[in-house]
Amino acid sequence: MASILQTTVLTCCSLTSSKRVINAAIHLPQLPNISLPPTKIQTNRKQQLDHQPLILEKNNSQILHDEPKQQYSNSTVQLYAVLEAVLDRVEMHQNIGEQRNNWNTLLLNSINMITLTATTMSGVAAVTSGEGAPLLALKLSSALLFSAATGLLLIMNKIQPSQLTEEQRNATRLFKQLQTQIQTTIAIGNPSEEDVKSAMEKVLALDKAYPLPLLGAMLEKFPAKFEPATWWPTKKGKTQSKKMGKMKNGWSEELEMEMREVFEVIKRKDGEEYERLGNIALKINKSLAVAGPLLTGIAAIGSTFIGNGSSLAAFVPLMAGSLAAAVNTFEHGGQVGMVFEMYRTSGGFFKLLETSIESTLSEKDLAKRENGELFEMKMALKLGRSISNLRELASKSASYRMEGVGEIDEFASKIF
């Protein structure tokens, strides 16, 4: 306890002695305010800070609104314009193809219903006794219905809706193929004016081969002779005739001989076969197109003689009407016109391959030809073969000709 009291007394004494310290102040003279000019570093820093928001805003504006545009060549821009036209034609042919397919279904069902209704009325009139108003009404109604069916059949057989539908399908497929070719040309880069000209010629050739309107421009549905479809532009001008020299650009003498043999096989086997099938389909379609309206016309005339006391007068409209319905169903339900158009397009496909090989081999300047290895690969794919299989076909054709055996027993294409 005594120690605690001693410590407290000492602390109080020390505090009292500290208060006795003499307070002295040193008064310095007041210096004048001198403003020094800012240094160059400070000035630049201040300007950067002051203008930083403006610079950032300007940079953001340039990034958002003033991005540099990629420059395209004039040929590229023109190819894009052709591509837009091709896409529009694809859409048009698709829509019109669906419309004409509906025509085929609706006209077929309507004509068959009219024909069968008229045949039924002829049968009812044949068993109706007497010569009163009911018999006359049945006879006139039957004759009118048969006449209407005859007129509709003449129109339907003239335009061949199933064949029109197949034309639009083929046009859509070929325009899509052209679309892919143009896109590939643009993707490779640096298209030339020749590429633009070639694309436009292909578009116009397709427009001519597969016209959209019915009046005036419609293709002849019953030509005198089967002709393959032609949807590619014809080459004008003569090829060069200078000597080739050493083979290059992927071409060799063996490859040229291979392409010539493939050309012969396509021409003598595939082309002739599809020409034969196309002529058969054309003859069948012509016969059915004449038979249908002829039978309904006979039925219309025969129905007016019902009730004259002759059993033959009642038999004719019944048989003719029934046969007309069967013929119409076989022609348009079986789409014989579509089959003919399919053979016509297939014949055109082989004709295009022949033209492609012939025009390529006739070009003596190898630098202007398509690369030989690429051309061989494309030809093999178009025929549904591998490259080795295509070479086997060419060697087989050459051996058949050298041995004098005759034509090769194999078709070039494995697709059609």
Automatic annotation (TrEMBL):
Q: Which UniProt keywords apply?
A: Membrane, Transmembrane, Transmembrane helix
Taken from the record, one Pfam family name reads Chloroplast_duf
- Its domain of life reads Eukaryota
Q: Does the keyword Endoplasmic reticulum apply?
A: no
Residues that span the membrane, as ranges: 106-127, 133-155, 288-306
Does the keyword section mention rRNA-binding? no
Q: Which InterPro entries match?
A: Chloroplast_duf (IPR027949)
- Name of the molecule in the record: F-box protein
What organism is recorded for this protein?
A: Vicia faba
